[in-house]
Amino acid sequence: MPESFEKHFAQKKETLRPFGNAQGKQAQGKEKSPEEIKEEKGLKLAEEIKEIKQKMGKEGKTVEGYEKIIELTQKIKEIYEEKERNYETEVKTIVANLEKALAEGASKDDVARSLAGVGTKEAMELRERLIKEGADKDYVVRSLAGVGTKESMAFRERLIKEGASKDYVAWGLAGVGTEQAMELRERLIKEGTYKDYVARSLAGVNTKEAEEFRRKHFGDNSNLIARSYSTDWTIYDGVICCYGYEK
Fold it and tell me: Which of 56, 118, 225, 238 is 20 to 30 A (C-alpha) from 247?
C-alpha cells in the first residue's frame, strides 16, 4: 500500500473517534454521513493491513500475508469506488414507466401491484388514478407495502371505509413499523382480520413494539411467529430487500 494512503487513514483515525472527546460527543448526537462511514470502514481495513505488515516484520514475509494485503487493499478501493444509490431518481423512473405502461394498456391491477414500496407524491397520485379508473382496491391497498407516510396511512383508512379487504390492508403493511401502523394492526386483529395476513404484515419490522406484538398475538402459534419474519413473497422481497428496512 502506498505510504500516502496509510498516512491518509492515520490522520483520519484521530478525527473519527466516536468517544472520549468533545468531537466524539458531538458525533453521537447526529447520524454519520456516508463519507464518514466510508472513512471508518477504510480505516478499519487499513489497520488490518498495518497489523499484517508488523507481523511479517517480526515473523518473516509470507505469500499468505501479501495475498491478504492485496485482498484488503482491493476492499478499500471498492469502498471508495462504490456509488451511492439515487433512490429519488429510481422511484421517479418507476412511476414514469408505470404511467407509460398504463397509457399503453397495461393491466391496472398489475400497475397497482408494481407500486409496492413507492410512497412519493406522484406514486400516491397514481394510486388515486387507478382507483378512479377501476383498479381492484385490494391490489391498490396491498401496494402500500413498505410505505409508512402519513398520507399512506390516511389512504389505507379511506380504502377500508370504501370496502377494501382488511386482509389485504394488513398484507400491505409489510415493512412498515410506525406507531400508526402498529395501532392499525391491533385494530385489524380486534376486527377479525385473518391472523395469517397480520403476521405476514410484520415482515421486515423488527422493532421492540413489533416483537411485543408477535408475543402477544402469535405466542401460542409457532407457524405464525415464523411467517411474521418471512420475506418469501415477491413484493416483500422488492420492498424489504431492494428498498431496505424502514428507518
Answer: 225
Domain span holding position 109: 87-242
C-alpha cell at 40: 471508518
pLDDT at residue 100 tops 50: yes
pTM recorded for the entire structure: 0.64
| pLDDT value for 174 | 92
Do 70 and 95 have their domain in common? no
Judgement on whether residues 129 and 170 belong to the same structural domain of the protein: yes
Same domain flag for 131 and 207: yes
**Would you state the cell numbers that stand for residue 237, as one nine-digit string?**
422481497
Question: What separation, in Å, do the N-terminal and C-terminal C-alpha atoms of the chain show?
Answer: 37
Q: What pLDDT is attached to residue 190?
A: 97
Greater confidence (173 vs 77) lies with 173
Q: Give yes or no for residue 178 having a pLDDT over 60.
A: yes
Task: Mark whether 165 and 126 lie in a shared domain.
Answer: yes
**3 state SS for 99-168:** HHHHHCCCCHHHHHHCCCCCCCHHHHHHHHHHHHCCCCHHHHHHCCCCCCCHHHHHHHHHHHHCCCCHHH
**pLDDT for 1 beyond 60:** no
Distance of alpha carbon 98 from alpha carbon 186, whole angstroms: 33
Boundary of a domain, candidates 66, 81, 96: 81
